[in-house]
Fold this protein.
Amino acid sequence: PTSPKRGSGSGSESETEGNGGGKSIFMVSDGTGWTAEHAVNAALGQFDYCLVDRLCPVNTHLFSGIDDVEQLMEIIKQAAKERAMVVYTLADPSMSESARQACDHWGVASTDVLGPITEAIGGHLGVSPSGLPRWAPGREKTLSEDYFRRIEAIEFTIKQDDGALPRNLHLADIILTGVSRSGKTPLSIYLAQKGYKVANVPIVMNVDLPKTLFEVNPEKVFALTINPVVLQSIRRARAKTLGFNGEIKTNYCDMDYVKQELEFAGKIFAQNPVWPVIEVTAKAIEETAVIVLRLYHDRKNRCSMPRISKRY
Amino acid sequence: PTSPKRGSGSGSESETEGNGGGKSIFMVSDGTGWTAEHAVNAALGQFDYCLVDRLCPVNTHLFSGIDDVEQLMEIIKQAAKERAMVVYTLADPSMSESARQACDHWGVASTDVLGPITEAIGGHLGVSPSGLPRWAPGREKTLSEDYFRRIEAIEFTIKQDDGALPRNLHLADIILTGVSRSGKTPLSIYLAQKGYKVANVPIVMNVDLPKTLFEVNPEKVFALTINPVVLQSIRRARAKTLGFNGEIKTNYCDMDYVKQELEFAGKIFAQNPVWPVIEVTAKAIEETAVIVLRLYHDRKNRCSMPRISKRY
Ligand SMILES: Nc1ncnc2c1ncn2[C@@H]1O[C@H](COP(=O)(O)O)[C@@H](O)[C@H]1O
Ligand SMILES: Nc1ncnc2c1ncn2[C@@H]1O[C@H](COP(=O)(O)O)[C@@H](O)[C@H]1O
Ligand SMILES: [Mg+2]
Ligand SMILES: [Mg+2]
């Protein structure tokens, strides 16, 4: 079998590996497995130093919808065969107990990602966990109002990409602005998935910004800035992908032009001092997202201790 | 302070609550906090039965970028004051140890989400975790090739939304098709964030699908279907949001029309038996996503045990 590379899951599936070449981590869930995957991802950040350059390659394998003990046992036996470790999220306590015991029995290292936190929250709330996985039969299957609001945020955000429909800017929760390739689009989408309606407005050298941008509450506008050298290299890669097919201006990757455009943007930012200017160089999208959201919530809440709060 | 509702973070911030009205969970990270939030979210799924109707309301508070012990102590003291529990991800072992001890000292329930899994992975790989948080000074700050590939996938997917640019369908990793409001757009975006280039093609009663859809590898096409009653109610809500402003056909929410359109779609699906037909009724986006990805990877890998694999 071929396996996509880190974080991609698609594209360059060039490496053929079978079980050889690297240690394996099995992620097993009665649900989707995304929670286990997220936790494994974060933990792997602690081994970046040896993952880089493939000094200690790791293969993860996600098994989702595992809700009966026979399947579970088969996977754990397979883990033993492949000398993999197992990370699991199993809501039914008898399933997670079976996982633990079978891993012990087959000499497979294992971690329960869901159990400890569920137990702690249960103790804190003074109620017992249901023990029901997300797809348990008989569980109520209605999607919440918030769920639909989040979907609406995504649709809104797509429609408002790249400066489209400036007349709608007043409907946005958050407006991002910055030069081309400063990461407005992926950041917009990331925030949209968290339920925020986002519009992004590109800044292009000597082109006027839409009037409506200056008519909305400036507290919801966030400016992005980026190091010119990094921006140039991102633009070069972009131009290569697009194949210089006319969509791109010839001086787009020019260092002089890149610097001038960033200065042009900087002047606009200076004229709008309420807009926070966020430096995005070498930041992952989820990192910039948390900076935006902290500012957004601090401004709304004027709370002594900066925090992002939600109600369940 | 006001707090957005579950999963939204924006919109209806109507409830004023201070610390009253519900139990609090503090999520503390030296990074973004999204890992802790994801784990808390999954665990809260175990308490759905009492979260519904606000029988036991929960407020979460996310503290990100906590990388010195004074800040950490202040937050834990605040947690004690607000009778909150603490969930933390702190890469530096001295920080996580401080968190544990301070929580014990102040009588605050706590869970370490990062430590146990990091330790287990370290043991499995036979190397030590770096102990460095994602924003530690001196850490290499380069974004990977995959990172940029993921961003490209997002940009591609936005451009291909709602049947746009059918000439590009051959460039997609995954193509989704289904009637309006079957969830193609949010599912496309979700998959794009995982690195897949997705195109979605709407099916509209008596409208021909683009020729290119039948020219691509049919193994990458996924059909979505949904219960007519649920679809009608989603379309009604949609029509209300859009305010019947001409973007919507008058019979769009008509039960007869809804059923006919689903039948029309069903016939197309029957004519293309390679396309898997996925039932999306009452499924969350991330649930449909894992179904699509499992099929996608199984088809690519023809592996005895269905799994989604990645290489790090
Ligand atoms: N809404 C939910 N209700 C009940 N359990 C859930 C819910 N969401 C996630 N879980 C559980 O949390 C764990 C992680 O979910 P997942 O991220 O889908 O693998 C699994 O054991 C799920 O069964
Ligand atoms: N790429 C990374 N390198 C090092 N540590 C990371 C990385 N990503 C996440 N972490 C750590 O994993 C935990 C969860 O991260 P976050 O989801 O950003 O709160 C934090 O303790 C981070 O410091
Ligand atoms: Mg863009
Ligand atoms: Mg759509």
Residues 17 and 117 of chain B are 35 Å apart (CA to CA). Residues A 42, 45-46, 48; B 29-36, 89-91, 114, 132-134 surround adenosine monophosphate (ligand 2) (CB under 6 Å).
